[in-house]
Amino acid sequence: MSTLVFIEFNKNTISESSSQAATIANELHNDVYGLTSNNDESYISSLGSKGFDKIFVIDDLNNYSAIEEVINSNGIKTILSPSSNTFKELSSKISTKLNFPIASNVLKIDKNGKISCSIFTGKAESHMINDNDSCIYLLNKNIVESQDFEKKADIVKVDSKVSENSSFEILEQKFIEEDISLNDADVVISAGRGLKGPENWQMIEDLAKKLNAATACSKPVSDAGWRPHHEHVGQTGLKISPKIYFAIGISGAIQHLAGVNSSKTIIVINNDPEAPFFKAADYGIVGDAFEVVPKIINSLG
Amino acid sequence: MKILVCVSCVPDTTSKVSFTEDNKFNKENIQFIIGPYEDYALARAVELKEKNNEIDISLLNIGLSENDPLLRKGLAIGADRAYRINSEPIDSNFVAHNIASFINKNNFDLILMGKESIDYNSGLVHYLSGSILNIQTFNPVTYLDLENDKSVIIKRETDSGIEKIKAKLPLILGCQEPIAEWKIPNMRGIMNARSKELSVIEPVGVKASLKLDKYTLPPEKEEIKYIDKDNLELLIDELKLKNL
């Protein structure tokens, strides 16, 4: 049996989510295949070190029939995917056309078909049993540490003609210019209304730079237009699970916690010792953000 | 133009989640709402209807009769009619097949859903329905305007940014803020909603693909460690320990 991992890229390298998926794939089956539309052959062939035996390179991930052919002709029954929209859409197609069960927000998989998933935005977990011989798992981030392997990845070019997309036309594309994407960041520095105004975000960005972190914000901050909408984390925004989450001047309403509660370590800085966020935190600093944050930046040297 | 808005009825965002001994969500003392993302979808549909009275808005929910007051609320906000498929929404696959079967019998030009339902969060129903019906699906959509009877202009978030797209109908869209402002029903809407049609439909049977074993609550957090604001070394050491 073999497992297929959808390879997502962050800039020009494999995303941490896909590396983690490959690590899990190696625990499930010996043969681990990858699928990507990135055709940088020298880089792709180095991905044996992430645990791939074979990587299928396809021109266009929208070419569903070519992908179905890869799955069918290679006896693939298990698919592991990061939870990005591109791969969620592809996974949904495979699930309905090939009748593969599909599980979202997966936290844990075992060889006997037991699956644990995050539900209610991290407020609960569901434990499922899969007694089919196939499954697609959309994985949450940071559910394992990615490992290095001593494998060699063969590259297989998939014959594919450009798919026809006559039903829509892309008029404009805007790329978000972030050094580190919020979804893929190990460390996230998030700030709320406690910062009093958009002009005070410089220290947040400085701290983010020091820690190689992405920046985020609470809903009131993005609603007020202090920060762009795509930075909003919480129940109705982005759900993230970085290794470290800094919450600075965020009170910690239940809707905000829901989006960040699966972070590995939560550090809360707030001048109100009664702020509800402290109940969800691993480390708490009671103090004025305008005093504490510059001190942290200084100490980091 | 016929618009279908599919809505989930979910626990209010402030709800404390718990489960009964027979592995069901504990509905006691829980306030249910129309899912926040579907609320955006409905609000946008109503805004479009305000500009063009030719638009007819149907509301669809999969759930039990306890959801009827929420569907009445949707009618009060401005939908013209409501349909309820009479079953618990078992899983994404079940919901998508039931939505697809409904759409097959009643043609719609535009099908709006939320980005995800905030209870089980799978975020798949729009994609699955689109795949079953072979209807182009976009998600998450943050802007929607009608160009004419046959096409729309939308903006959707991609994994790397935002795309502005002109697309032909029919379409399925998973909606997200800031596509519209949430609407609150007014007195006239509430009065009108009483005479609008709410039809109940029997579900199509779809076998659950994964079996539920049990629900659990996540493990309790360990006790918080407080760090003195004048002595941040402990924090810095912790960060260094994590190779930062």
Quick rundown:
The complex is a heterodimer of chains A (301) and B (244). Chain A is an alpha/beta fold.
Keywords:
heterodimer, A: 301 residues, alpha/beta, Rossmann fold, 2 domains, nine-stranded mixed sheet, five-stranded parallel sheet, 17 strands, 29% strand, B: 244 residues, two-stranded antiparallel sheet, 6 helices, 30% strand
In round numbers, the mean pLDDT of chain B is: 94
Mean of residue pLDDT values of chain A? 92
Task: Give the H and E element order of chain B.
Answer: EEEHEHEHEHEEEEHEEEH
Instruction: Measure the end-to-end span of chain A.
Output: 50 Å
User: How would a crystallographer describe the biggest sheet of chain A?
Assistant: 9 strands, mixed
Measured by DSSP, the beta-strand proportion of chain B falls in 25-35%
Largest interface: A-B, 80 and 69 residues
- Which class do the helix and strand fractions of chain A yield? alpha/beta
Supply the CATH superfamily name of the largest domain in chain A: HUPs
Report the C-alpha radius of gyration of chain A, rounded: 21 Å
Count up the helices of chain B.
6
pLDDT < 50 runs, ≥5 residues of chain B: none
Give a description of the structure:
The complex is a heterodimer of chains A (301) and B (244). Chain A is α/β, with parallel strands linked by helices and 301 residues long. Chain A is built from eight helices and 17 strands. In chain A, 25% of the residues lie in helices and 29% in strands. A nine-stranded mixed sheet of chain A has the order 9-8-7-10-6-1-4-5-11, sandwiched between helices. Chain A has a five-stranded parallel sheet with strand order 14-13-15-16-17. In chain A, strand 13, helix 5 and strand 14 form a beta-alpha-beta unit. In chain A, helix 5 packs parallel to helix 8. Chain B contains six helices and 13 strands. In chain B, the strands form two sheets. Chain B has a nine-stranded mixed sheet, with helices on both faces. In chain B, strand 7 and strand 8 form a beta hairpin. The N and C termini of chain B lie far apart (55 Å). The mean pLDDT of chain B is 94. Classes of the chains: A alpha/beta (301), B alpha/beta (244). Chains A and B meet through helix 4, strand 7, strand 8, strand 9 and strand 12 of A and helix 3, helix 4, strand 7, strand 9 and strand 12 of B. Strand 17 of chain A pairs parallel with strand 13 of chain B.
